[in-house]
Amino acid sequence: MKNTVIKQSISIVVLILSILVLSCKKDFLEILPESTVTVDYLFKTDKDYTDAMLGAYRVLHDVYDDFWEFGDLRGDDCIQSALRQTDRVRVDQFIVDVNDALTRNFWEDNYRAITQVNLILFKLEEADQAIITNKELYIGEAKFIRALSYFNLVRVFGDVPMITAPITSEEALVTPREDTDRIYDDIIIPDLLEAEAKLPEIHSGENMGRATKGAAKSLLGKVYLTVHDFVNAEAKLLEVTSMGYALLDNFENLFNFDNEHHSEYIFDIEYIDGDIGLGSSFTRDFIGEFQDFGAVFRDKLMELYNIQGRESGGAGTPSLDFIDLFEPNDLRQYRTATTGIFDINGVWVEIPVGSQVKAICQKYCDAVVTDCRTNWRIIRYADVLLMLAEAMNENATNQGEINEALNYLNQVRTRAGLAGYSDLTQAEARDKILMERRLELYLEGHRWFDLVRTGNAMNFCEPFGMQPYMTVFPVPQSQIEVINDPTIFPQNQGY
Amino acid sequence: MKKNLNQGVQSYPCLKKLIMELRIVFLLILAGVSNVFATPTYSQSARISLDMENKSLEKVMDEIEDKSEFYFLFNQRQIDIERTVSVDVENTLIDGILSQLFDGTGVNYFILDRQILLTTDPLESLVEFTNEKENPQQITVTGTITDASTGEPMPGVNVLVKGTATGALTDANGKYTLPVSDPQNAVLVFSFIGYGTTEIPVAGQTVINASLKATVTGLDEVVVIGYGTAKRADLTGSVGSVNTDVLQEVKVTNVEQALMGQIAGVQVRPNDGTPGQAAQIVIRGVGSISAGSDPLYVVDGFPVEDLQGLNPTDIENIDILKDASATAIYGSRGSNGVVIITTKRGIVGNAQIHLDISSGLQKVAQLPHYMNAEEQAIYAYWSAYFRNIDDGNDVSGPPNEWAFKCPQIVLDILDGKPGTPDTDWFDEVMQVAPITRYNLSVSGGTDNIKYAISGEYLDQEGIIINSSFQRYTIQTNIDGQLTKKLSVKLSLNPSYIIDIGPDPSGTGYGTTILGNAASINPYVPVYNEDGSYFNIEGLPEVGNFPNPVALANEQIDEIKRLAIRGNIMAEYAIFDELKLSVMAGIDANSRNRIYFVPLIEALQRSTASGSASNNMGRNWITEYTLNYNKSIGEHQITGLLGYTVQANESLSTSMQSNAYPNNLVPYLSAVSGVINDGSSSISEWSLISYLGRINYVYKSRYYLTASLRTDGSSRFGAENKYGWFPSAALAWRVSEENFLRDVNFLETLKLRASFGITGNNNIGNYEHLATINNITYPLANQPIGGFLPQRLSNPNLTWETQKSINLGFDLSIFTGRLSLVVDYFNSKNEDLLLDVNIPSITGFSSTIQNIGKVQNTGLEFLVNTVNIQSKFNWTTDFNISFYRNEVLKLGPKGDPIISSRHITMIGEPIGVFYGLTYDGIFETQEEFEEGPIYNPGARNRTRLGDAKFVDYSGPDGVPDNVINSYDRVIIGSPYPDFYYGMTNRFSYQNFTLSVALQGVYGNSIGSLARTVGLRSEFRVNQLALANNFWISEEEPGDGNTPRPNDEPTGGIREWSTRHLEDGSYLRINNISLSYQLPNSISQKLSINSLRVYIIANNPFIFTDTEGFNPDVNRSGDSLYPGEDNNNYPLAKSLSLGFNIGF
C-alpha cells in the first residue's frame, strides 16, 4: 500500500516536471522589447515613413544647435566672450583641435541625418505607391535633407565620404573621402533638383515646418552660388521671387516668436518651448553673461524679456568693430549688436564698463532662457534676395544689369531704413552685397561661409589667426583613427 | 579496578594527593635501604590468599582487587601487565605478595592504605614531583557550558584540567562536576568539535561557567556552495564565509556592510553613506569593462536582484563563492562571484524569543577643509588682482574701482568690518542623526515543524538634514517534515522601505546639496532676516548656487518600496541516497517615487516642478534538483542534476510636470492634467538552465569536483543562445596521509586546485536587437512623434566569458591555534562587451561587440589565530589581498578608451587616471622662461606664478615645451596595491570586545571635488590647501600653489595629478563591546539571557584623503573608477543596545 503511494507521488512529480520543462521551452528565450520595436517591424505603412522622416528632422536639431560656431564664431564679427568655454575660444581664435567635440558632433550628426534618409530612400525603393501614398513626397523630403546635410559637410570639412544607401560597418571602414566637386555634382545638386520637383509649394496646417519646394529652390540657389555657377543660381533664385515670399515690413517683426512662419520664412529648424526637450538653447547662449553684467544691467535685461532663471552663456557676442559697421539709423543695429538696451521704460542702460561681454545680440532673446521656442533660420527671403543680387551682379555684363541686381539688394536696405544703391561698379556692388549680408544675417550662420565662398576669408580673418588652409575645419580625429588609412581617409592639409 | 593513568578522562583523581602525603616516607626511602615501604594501615592488616599458576599479571591484579579493597595505579607503558606470573600464598600481607610479583623486575611499588602504585621511575623523580606543590588541597568545581551565540546549554563538552588527564563531559543540561587538585593554579580547558577551545583559570573558584563560540574556520562548518552544501573540510573551491556572530557584532543596517574587511579577495566599499544604501562589492577585481562587477546574490537558493528587503539580523551565514569551481554552477551569472545568503531557520526545542533594541547617534565621519571667510576673502582679492593684471588693467587704485572689481564684501572682510557672515555650509546641511533598531525573533520547533520568525523596524535619520531611511521587514522560515520522506521548507520575506531625501552628491555649479555646500563662499548667510532662505544669486562675490539648506529642506524626494520575496522547497527522498527537490519562488517589488521642487526664490527655478514614477518588478524561479549521496567503503560520491528556469519583468511608469500652481501639493493631482513628459516601459529577461555536479572523495583524502551548467538567455543574440560553463577541481588532504600522521602540531593541510569557465550576462536585455528610439519634432508648434534607430543589431552578441584558475591551500596547526588559507588565482575575462568605434558614416559612432579581454591575478591570505586562550581570550582574524588587473585586448585595433579623466589601454588596469603631471609652479622668472607653457599666445597662456606641468611629448612625438593634450599620461591607479581587514576579538568572563578594521594601500582617488575646490575661481569656495599661494617672486607661498586668478591661465583647470589624492586608508570599521549577564542573575530575573552592548561604527579613520570618504566611486561604470564626487558622507556612530532572551 505504502509503496503504491510513493510510486504514485513519483509519477506525479515526474509528470509535473515534464510538463513544465516542455511548456517552458518554446519561445521562452525569444523576448522582444515591448516598449520599443526593432527596425525590422517598421516601414510597413505610410505613417511609418512620416515617423521616420520626423526622426531625420529631429537630427537637424543636433546639427544646428551649434551651427553658429561654424557660420558666425569662426568669422570676423562674432567673438567668444566667456573664456571658460575653451572649445568655442579655439574656434574663435583659429586654433581648433582635431579632437574637439564640435567637429566630431557635426560630422556624426550630419551623417546620422544622412543615414536616416538613406534608410528611408532604400525602403522606398520597394514601397508600393498604393500603400505608401506619399512616396514621392517622402523621396523629395529625404533628398532635401540629404542635400542639406552634404552641403553642410562639404562646406565644413571639404572632401567627405559619399554614402547614398545603408552600409555596414565593414563597408564603412573602406569608404574613402570623395572629392567635394563630385558630391556637389552627384548628390547635392541632383537631390535638390529632385526635391524641388517632388516637394509641395507649401506645407500648411499641421505640417508647417517641413521642407517645401521654395526651400529646395532657395537652397539650390545657394549651392549654385557656392560652386560659382552664377547662371543657374540667378535662374533658380529668380524662381523663388515669384513664389509669394515677401520681406516683412519691419525687421523687428522677424523677432516676434509668436509667428515664425511668416512671408519671409522659407526653411527653419523648428523649436518649441515647454520643457519637453524641443527647445533651443540660443537665448541662453547669446544673452550675455548675467554674473558678468552686474545686478543692474542683468535685472533690466531680464525684465525686458521676462527672462526666468539666471543661467546664461556669454556667447555669440558681436565685436565692437562690427557695431561700427552699421550706418547711423540702420534699423537692424540695435537688435543685431548693441552695447546697451532700452529697458522696459525705454531708458537706455549701458552694459557696465569692465564686463567681459561688451555687446550683445538680441536676435534670439525671448521669455525663457533655457529651452526656447526661437527657431534657427536656415534660409529666409532676405537671404534669397541678397543671393539673387549677388548672382545677378556676377552675371552682369553692363551697368543696367548691375543696377537690376542692386534693386534686390535695395529691397533689404530699404526695410532697414537705409537709402538704396545705384550705379555701383560690379566690384563695388560685390562688396556692398557682401557687407549687406554681414549686417542683415549676423548670427544666422552665414558669415563664415560667405567669406569662404567669395574667397574673402583670409582678407577678413587673417588678423584673428586664420591661415590659408583653414577654409575647412579638420576632419574629426576619431574618424581618422577608426579608419586608420591615410590613403583613403587623410586629415585635411595643415591640421 | 585498575586505573590506567594515561587513558581516559576519568583517571584517578586522588593520586596526587596520595603521593604528596607520602613526602616524608619518600625522604626515608631516599636515606634507607629498602625499596618497599608502607604505612601500617589497611595494608598491615588485610591478608589475601591466592593460588594462580601461569596467569597474566593483569589477571592476578584483578584477583587481588576482587579479593581485597586494594586497587592498582600504574602507567601501562611502564608495567607489562601481560607478563605471566605464578603466585601461591595464603593469608599473606599485600607486601609479601607484591614482593613475589615484582622483586627483580625493576618495578617499584608503593602502598598507601588501599592504593598500590606501580612505577619504574627512579625514586628521586618521585620526590621532585611531590615537591612541586607546596599547599596541596582539592576542591570540586562545577559549572554550565553554553553556546555563546544561542545561550543554550551544550551537552558533551570536554572539560579537562590543563596538563593532566583529569576531565569530565558535560551532561544533557550542559553541567559538569570536576575535582581539581590545585585550585590556585589549575586551568580548565573546554573544548567541543566545531567550537573554539576556551581556557579558564580556576583561581580558587568552585563554579566556572563558560560559553563556547563556534569557530569560523571549523572544519565541520557547513558551507553553502550553490545547489547544495559541503563541509568546509571537503571543499575543493575557494569559498569565504561570514557567520551570524560577526553579523551580531557589527550591527550593520544592511548586509553588504557586514562583509567589510571580512573576507580575503572581497573588497567592500561603502562609497555612499546614504541611509539604506548598499556598499559596493567587488570580488577578485573588476573583470568587466561595461557589464558591471556586481556579484550575483542568492538568498535561500533564490538568485535575486538586490538585498534591499533583507534584515542582516535574520542571516545565519553568508558564503562567498570566489573561484570558478565554486561559481561555475551559476554559469552565465557567476563570473563576478556569488554571494550566498542563508537565513536563520528554527531548531528543535522550546521557543526562543529574543528582543533586541539598540539606539545610537550618527555624525559625519570626516569633512574636507575649505577656506573660511577670511581665507577666502584673501584668495578672492588676489584672484581679482591677477585677473586685472592679466588683462593689462590698472591696479593702482582702490580694488572696488578696478576694471574687474574686487567685491565689496571681500574688502569689508579684509578690513575686519564686523558683522560679515562666515557660514559653515557643511555644518548647515548636516546634523547629528539618531538611529534606532528593533528586532523581535521567535524560533523553535518539534521534530516535525520548526519555525524561525522575526520582525524588524529600523529607523535611521541621515546625517544630511531631512534625509532618512525606514525599513520594516519580516522573515518567516518554516520547515516541515511532512512524512518520513517528504519535507517542505518555506521562506518568506516581506519588506517595506521608506527612503527620504534627494541625492546630495555632486560638485560645482548645480543643484546638489553637497556640491553647493562645498562651493558657496562663506560670505553669505543661510537665511534672510525675515527667516526666508537667502537667495545666493547674482552676487559678485558668490556664484549662482541654489541654497543647499533650501535644497535639503524643501525638495521632496520620497521613495517607498514594497517587496515580497518568498520561496518554497519540497524535498522528497526517493531512496535514502537519492533526493528530489522542487523549488519555486517569486520576488516581487513595487517602488513609488515622488519628487517635487517647489517654487522658492532661493532654489532659482522658474517653475515648481515634480514627477511621480512607479516601478514594478517581478522575478520568478522554478528549480528541480536531484541529489545523490552514496558511500561505499572508502569511496564517497555525491551528485547533483538540476533544471531551473527564471524570468524577470520590470515595468516602469513616470510622469512629470512643471505646471504646479503653487507649492502646496507635491503630487501631480495639483497640475490639472498638464503633464510635460511621461513614459512607461517594460523590460524582460528569461533564463533556462541545466546543471550538474559530481563530487568524489576517496579515503577522506582525495577530492574531485566537476560541474557543468548550460544557460540559455533571452539576452543573447540569435547566433549564441546557449552557453556552456564547465569546471573541475581537485583537493588533497595531505595531513591525512600516514607520513604526516605523526607531525603532532599539524592539524590540517589541504591543497586545492581548480579551473572553470563562467560568464557575465549583464549585457542589457535587448542589446542584440536593432531597436528604435521614439522622438518628437515640432511641426506647426506641436510636438509630433517619430523615430530614430537606436543601434545596429548584433545577432552574435553574447555573455562575457571568464576562464579562471585557482590554486590554494588550507593549513591549520597547533590544535587550530593558527590557521591559514592561501589562494592564488588567475582569471581571464574574454569577449568583454565594448563599444567599438565604427565610422560615423554608418549613422552610429559605435556598436557593442564581444571583443575585450581583461586579466585579474591575485593572491589572498586569510589568517586566524588564537593568541591567548585562558580566562582572557584573544583571537585575531586577518586577511589581505593583492591583485592586479590588466587589460589584454581592446577593440579591433587595440586603441585605448579615453573616458575624460581615465584611460583604458592594453597592458594597464581598466580606467587608470589619465592627465597632466603637475610639477609645482613657476616661482621665478628664470624658471618661467624655461617653460613649458600652456597654450602659448592665447589669453589663458601660462604666466609667472602659474602651474607648471611636465612636458612629455608634442604633435611630433617629442617634447615641444608646450603643454597640451600630448602631455597627458597615466597619472595614477584607482586600484590599491593591496587591501586588508582584521578583526580582533577579546573575551574576559562575560565581556566580549571585538575590533574590526579594514584598509587599502596604494591607490589614487580622482577628486572631482578638487576640480571645483582648486579651480581658482573667486566666486567658488576653495579648498584650504590652496591657502599658501604664490603672490610674487618675493612671496612665493608654499612653492606649490599657483597664484589665484579668476580667469585662470596656465591650464590650472586641466585634469592633472593635482586632482589626485592618495587613497590609502585604515579605518576602524567597528568596535563592539558586550556583556552577557551571568546565568545565575538572569535566572533570578526570570529570563533566559540578557546581553547589553555598545557599538561604535566607523569611529576612526587614518588617511591623508581630503574628501568625505576615501572609499569613493562616483559611478558603477568601470571606465570611471575611483572618482570622488562628494557622495553622501559616511557617518560614524555610537549605539547602545540590549538583547533579551525569554
Description:
The complex is a heterodimer of chains A (495) and B (1142). Chain A has 495 residues and is mostly helical. Chain A has 3 domains: 1-205 and 477-495, Alpha Horseshoe (Serine Threonine Protein Phosphatase 5, Tetratricopeptide repeat), CATH 1.25.40; 292-369, no CATH class; 388-463, no CATH class. Chain A contains 21 helices and 6 strands. Chain A has helices at 2-25, 46-65, 67-73, 86-92, 101-126, 135-157, 169-173, 180-198, 213-226, 230-241, 282-286, 290-293, 295-305, 320-325, 333-336, 381-395, 399-415, 426-440, 447-453, 457-461, 477-483, and strands at 78-79, 265-269, 317-318, 340-342, 348-350, 376-380. In chain A, α5 (101-126) packs antiparallel against α6 (135-157). The termini of chain A are far apart. Chain B is 11% helix and 45% strand. Chain B contains 18 helices and 57 strands. Chain B has a 22-stranded antiparallel β-barrel. A 5-stranded mixed sheet of chain B has the order 16-21-22-19-20. In chain B, α2 packs antiparallel against α6 (123-131). Chain B is elongated, with a radius of gyration of 38 Å. The two termini of chain B are 47 Å apart. The model of chain B is unreliable at 1-40 and 124-135 (pLDDT under 50). Chains A and B meet through α1, α2, α5, α7 and α13 of A and β30, β31, β32, β36 and β37 of B.
